[in-house]
Design a protein that fits this description.
By secondary structure, the protein is an alpha+beta fold. It folds into three domains: about 90 residues, Rossmann fold (3-Layer(aba) Sandwich); about 55 residues, ATP-grasp fold, A domain (Dna Ligase, domain 1, 2-Layer Sandwich); about 200 residues, 2-Layer Sandwich (D-amino Acid Aminotransferase, Chain A, domain 1), CATH 3.30.470.20. It contains ten helices and 21 strands. The strands form four sheets. Strands 10, 11, 12, 13, 14, 15, 16, 18 and 20 form a nine-stranded antiparallel beta sheet that branches. Strands 3-2-1-4-5 form a five-stranded parallel beta sheet, sandwiched between helices. α3 links the parallel β4 and β5. α2 runs parallel beside α3. The mean pLDDT is about 95.
Length: about 375
């Protein structure tokens, strides 16, 4: 059986690595000839993900087509779906999710909890919503990994605002950031993973590390998972959905954003859960029984980001010291070149409880540095 993937980054690479265990064949499309998937896919096509004809041509030779990133040709996916190819997540779901403004309106229309917001077409429109400040401005399309997002605390910050169609999302003070991965197959079976607690790198505005289980009470855990399961059913989505949420100071859970695919906040599931997020996504789109989401161990995960001041051929300094520790599992993404804050890999750490796993992960983070071998003495 042939599975097509539109997008060839590290998420697709780990998805393929899991799927090879089932004897499946993977065909991948990505514009980067050296994309992480290019090294292990059975067939790799170098083309623009938004090229309708290229997406159609890749997918028509497959039994199932999925995505690794939301920025793809929806029209190409619709053509495939209309010709009988299974396409998951469905193109209509991608139309909702790829536009953050449409996302927010979907939450409101379906009585799903989210922070107050306003939609603007340009920087000039922001002054019409001064009463909403402070906000996080998010470009409606094109933002990714902290790009296309900027805080606006007062009108004095307008110089740094984006002059593009955007969401102004009310600032949620002192919020804990969490994530839930939830899956659904075509039979309507739904399962969610235990809540993950996220800690962000304040400079790069992307995840620095995560811990699971999250350090929250049973009531909040149940509420977050219930919201996520309700959301995927309201979307009628087939596949894996990552739901990022805020927990307010008074215990309210608000949806922040969602991603219809495997997600950075689920990397730890490869070692920590009976079923990884990649296996669950595959089970969902193949309409197989969903696997157990139970944690086998407490876990922490750290992203390996390129160090500031390093741009060139990658070297992972300190890796050998880190893997001397018990329960340390590195995953390198096969990217030949590093640059500041580029995601180059991750490390999952297992231990007896969340705090011990986090403490060990923080030690490992200090050991491993992603540097350029051309500029650093090794």
């Amino acid at each position: 059986m042939k599975v097509g993937i539109i997008g060839g980054g590290q998420l697709g690479r780990m998805f393929i690595q899991n799927g090879l265990n089932y004897g499946l064949e993977f065909h991948v499309l990505d514009p980067d000839p050296e994309a992480p998937c290019s090294q292990i896919a059975h067939k790799f096509v170098c083309a623009d993900r938004n090229d309708e004809e290229a997406v159609y041509q890749l997918g028509k030779g497959c039994d199932v087509v999925t995505i690794e990133i939301e920025n793809v040709s929806i029209s190409g996916l619709k053509r495939l779906r209309d010709e009988g190819i299974s396409v998951f997540p469905q193109p209509e779901v991608l139309e909702v999710i790829r536009d953050k403004g449409v996302q927010k309106e979907f939450y409101r229309a379906n009585n799903l909890p989210t922070a107050d917001f306003a939609l603007v077409e340009s920087k000039a429109d922001i002054s019409n919503h001064e009463s909403l400040l402070p906000v996080m401005q998010k470009m409606r399309v094109g933002g990714y990994d902290g790009k296309g997002v900027t805080p606006l605390k007062s009108m004095d910050d307008l110089d740094t605002a984006f002059d593009a169609p955007s969401v102004l999302e009310k600032w949620v003070p002192n919020a804990l950031e969490i994530s839930v991965l939830v899956s659904r197959n075509s039979k309507g079976e739904v399962k969610s993973f235990p809540v993950v607690e996220l800690v962000f790198n304040p400079e790069a505005n992307l995840v620095d590390y995560l811990v699971s289980p999250a350090r929250i009470d049973v009531g909040l855990e149940s509420k977050a998972r219930e919201i996520s399961e309700n959301l995927i059913q309201k979307l009628n989505m087939v596949g894996l959905l990552a739901v990022e949420m805020f927990v307010t100071a008074d215990g309210e859970v608000l949806i922040n954003e969602m991603a219809p695919r495997p997600h950075n906040s689920g990397h730890h599931t490869i070692e920590a859960c009976f079923t990884s997020q990649y296996d669950q996504h595959l089970r969902s789109i193949m309409n197989w029984p969903l696997g157990s989401t139970v944690l086998r161990s407490a876990a922490a995960m750290i992203n390996l980001l390129g160090e500031k001041g390093h741009d060139g051929p990658v070297h992972y300094a300190g890796l050998e010291d880190a893997i001397e520790e018990t329960g340390v599992f590195p995953h390198m993404y096969g990217k030949a070149l590093t640059k500041p804050f580029r995601k180059m890999g991750h490390v999952t750490v297992l231990d007896n409880n969340t705090n011990d796993a986090l403490y060990k992960a923080q030690r490992v983070k200090e050991m491993i540095k992603v540097v350029s071998s051309s500029t650093t003495a090794l």
